[in-house]
Write a structure and sequence with these properties.
Largest sheet: 5 strands, mixed
Distance between the termini: 19 Å
Number of strands: 9
Number of domains: 2
Oligomer: single chain
Radius of gyration: 20 Å
Amino acid sequence: MIDEIIPGTISYVFCNRIQGEGSWSDKLLNWCEEHKLPIVVISSSQYEPALRKQNLEIWRRNFHAKVREKLKGFREQFRVLAGYMLILDPETCGDIPSLNLHPAKPGGPKGTWQQVIWQLMESDADETGVMIHLATPQLDEGPAITYCTFSIRGKDFDPLWNGLKEKLKSSTLSQIIKIEGEDNALFKEIRKHGLMREFPLIVHTIKEVASGNVQIVNGKVRSSDGRLLTRGYCLTEVIDQWLKQTQRYPV
């Protein structure tokens, strides 16, 4: 098995939902309590809702200023934005490096994971991936830190692409999206293969950064010997090996 021990500790877990605001956030908070991890919680939905409607940029700065104040005193080398759906303000981005997951390879489609997959289908893409990038105030614009890629062709995908092509003879992709949505077979297969790589990529990225193999210096991503990694650090082989050894690789 691959050594997944990360040289470091979790200083805290921040959540922008309080108990009762979401089933998944409730599970996270309960898990943190069970494992005695420090928890910091500020409800973004309850924080100055009138200002949020009036001026989102000012609200974003005010909210994250409050978050930064709450996080003072915690030692941290970097932050991992796991399921954090808010855009960070410039001050928070420049405070501590924040690592964010994006369901596409470097240079790939932007947007939500749903939007990414529809764009892949629209462009008749052969390959996609998952990456961890440095969070910036501009959504999905930060430099890639790590990534992995995978083919969306072959025995698992070709029949589904052919099925889509048949449907496109009588309908547009927009019509297919409206009728089938996320139940489209090709959509679901792409999502399945991407999702199974997201969690191991997060773990291995934390390991590489914590161990110094990947370094984030002044907003740039570099290797341990100082080389600038313009596309990020490729972990495709590592992730594929992990999936095979854990028997999670599609066969």
